[in-house]
């Protein structure tokens, strides 16, 4: 990980191996000429290179290979510290390999990286590896308290906890935050810290998670839209929500586990655990999955709130709270009959529902299915006009078990409805409209019927497409 002392340790190692006054000790004496030269940054034989900036083979040849052949001018060893070594190009690694295999006796290489998996195995196998870890919270606290004591500053425990949580185990970030707070005065409490530290995502995320756990769909949707209005970035907000739900799920199986880097969780833990106890683990997993799957969509959507709104609606359907769903124009579905009427013909070439368990919902007539499709098209027109345009082509035929059956004349329409993520988007909106998790099935009509599509119908479709994109048919 970054900010845990890799480069600092490399410098200390370079100082230790070149110390002429340490004798049998493992620590440098910091008084000899070599130690003083290193401490004052005037040791010419300690060469630090940033591979993130100098990645090419010319840098490796000029600064490393040719330089390594020259004996040190001041110190016993010439030490090369290559930071972010994984950023070197493949050709640079190939050029460096021979020198690493047979280094001169007076040369020591220290390679530092945050992404070991990107370093070629041929390089790793020729090195002695030391793995660094995130700094433990108690160690970080002791270090921050020591710094505050040396600077004669008073920092309250609540502020230290906030710094530790914000740092994510990175000592460098923690010291940087503490240094910013020192500019506020000699005594630093939460009120002073809030002047420098940005507002935590937890201030919005924890109330939102409580709404989701309580099944308050309306409140959760209103919260998302309020955040958009306030200009809050939904991607980091969603990441915090995911971290909270993940902590809840993990703590169910490991109650003693703590989450020091998740700010505010320990204070909210009891209330959240109590709220989560009303749900099964499967429901919690579905909640976590819904927000996880919305994360990539947040980066690409033109409607920032939509991915999270779909996740909330999906969770509402899982919680089976139909009273929170918009009512339909037709009557609510009846309980399944023991001998349901015969279903429409098999969906044929269309994609079948992905679930292996088929639910037997009350069958829909063609008129009911058409009414649902009209409502669906109207709703999609508000949020996703391109999908709404696709929905104008198929004919609703009714339902089969838990699937709404549509019929299209051309393979293109079939592929558009069932692919590119459109199917899941339509199914989610269907659930929001009807309160029933209908699945979508699409089938092609026979070729003879498809040929009967008139030129007038094609012209009408072309006009709709042109209107949707602000153009005209010529």
From TrEMBL:
Recorded GO CC terms: DNA polymerase III complex
A biological process from GO: DNA-templated DNA replication
SUPFAM superfamilies referenced in this protein's UniProt entry, alphabetically: P-loop containing nucleoside triphosphate hydrolases, post-AAA+ oligomerization domain-like
Polar residues bias: start-end ranges: 351-362
Pfam families reported in the protein's UniProt record: DNA_pol3_delta2, DNA_pol3_gamma3
Name of this protein: DNA polymerase III subunit gamma/tau
Catalytic activity: DNA(n) + a 2'-deoxyribonucleoside 5'-triphosphate = DNA(n+1) + diphosphate
Single GO molecular function: DNA binding
Family under the similarity heading: Belongs to the DnaX/STICHEL family.
Record's function text: DNA polymerase III is a complex, multichain enzyme responsible for most of the replicative synthesis in bacteria. This DNA polymerase also exhibits 3' to 5' exonuclease activity.
Region (Disordered): 331-364
Listed EC numbers: 2.7.7.7
Gene3D superfamilies according to UniProt: 1.10.8.60, 1.20.272.10, P-loop containing nucleotide triphosphate hydrolases
Statement: the UniProt record of this protein carries the keyword ATP-binding: yes
UniProt domain DNA polymerase III gamma subunit: residue ranges: 210-323
Keywords for this protein: ATP-binding, DNA replication, DNA-directed DNA polymerase, Nucleotide-binding, Nucleotidyltransferase, Transferase
Subunit-level organization: DNA polymerase III contains a core (composed of alpha, epsilon and theta chains) that associates with a tau subunit. This core dimerizes to form the POLIII' complex. PolIII' associates with the gamma complex (composed of gamma, delta, delta', psi and chi chains) and with the beta chain to form the complete DNA polymerase III complex.
């Amino acid at each position: 990980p970054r900010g845990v002392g890799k480069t600092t340790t490399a410098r200390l190692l370079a100082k230790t191996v070149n110390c002429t006054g340490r004798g049998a000790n493992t620590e440098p004496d910091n008084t000899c000429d070599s130690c003083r030269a290193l401490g004052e940054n005037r040791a010419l034989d300690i060469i630090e290179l940033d591979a993130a900036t100098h990645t090419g083979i010319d840098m490796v040849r000029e600064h490393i290979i040719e330089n390594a052949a020259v004996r040190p001018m001041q110190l016993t060893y010439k030490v090369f510290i290559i930071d972010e070594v994984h950023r070197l190009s493949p050709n640079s690694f190939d050029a460096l390999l021979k020198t690493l295999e047979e280094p001169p006796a007076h040369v020591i290489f220290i390679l530092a990286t945050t992404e070991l998996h990107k370093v070629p195995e041929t390089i790793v196998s020729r090195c002695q590896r030391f793995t660094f870890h995130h700094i433990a919270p108690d160690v970080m606290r002791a270090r921050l308290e020591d710094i505050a004591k040396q600077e004669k500053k008073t920092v309250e425990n609540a502020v230290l906890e906030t710094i530790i949580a914000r740092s994510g185990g990175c000592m460098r970030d923690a010291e940087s935050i503490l240094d910013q707070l020192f500019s506020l005065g000699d005594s630093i409490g939460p009120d002073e810290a809030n002047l420098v530290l940005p507002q935590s995502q937890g201030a919005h995320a924890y109330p939102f998670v409580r709404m989701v756990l309580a099944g308050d769909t309306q409140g959760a949707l209103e919260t998302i839209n309020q955040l958009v209005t306030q200009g809050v970035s939904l991607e980091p907000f969603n990441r915090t929500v995911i971290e909270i739900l993940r902590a809840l799920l993990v703590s169910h199986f490991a109650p003693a586990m703590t989450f020091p880097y998740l700010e505010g969780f320990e204070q909210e833990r009891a209330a959240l655990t109590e709220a989560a106890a009303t749900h099964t683990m499967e429901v919690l997993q579905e909640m976590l999955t819904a927000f996880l799957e919305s994360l990539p969509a947040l980066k690409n959507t033109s409607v920032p709130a939509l991915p999270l709104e779909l996740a909330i609606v999906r969770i509402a359907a899982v919680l089976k709270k139909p009273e929170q769903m918009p009512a339909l124009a037709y009557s609510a579905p009846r309980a399944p009959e023991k001998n349901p009427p015969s279903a429409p013909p098999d969906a044929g070439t269309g994609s079948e529902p992905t679930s292996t368990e088929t639910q037997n919902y009350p069958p829909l007539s063609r008129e009911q299915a058409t009414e649902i499709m009209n409502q669906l098209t109207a709703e999609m027109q508000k949020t996703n006009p391109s999908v709404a345009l696709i929905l104008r082509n198929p004919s609703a035929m009714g339902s089969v078990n838990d699937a709404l059956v549509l019929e299209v004349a051309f393979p293109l329409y079939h592929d558009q409805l069932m692919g590119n993520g459109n199917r899941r988007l339509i199914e989610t909106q269907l659930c929001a409209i009807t309160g029933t998790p209908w699945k979508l099935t699409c089938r092609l009509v026979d070729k003879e019927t498809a040929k009967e599509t008139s030129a007038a119908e094609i012209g009408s479709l072309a006009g709709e497409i042109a209107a949707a994109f602000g153009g005209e048919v010529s």
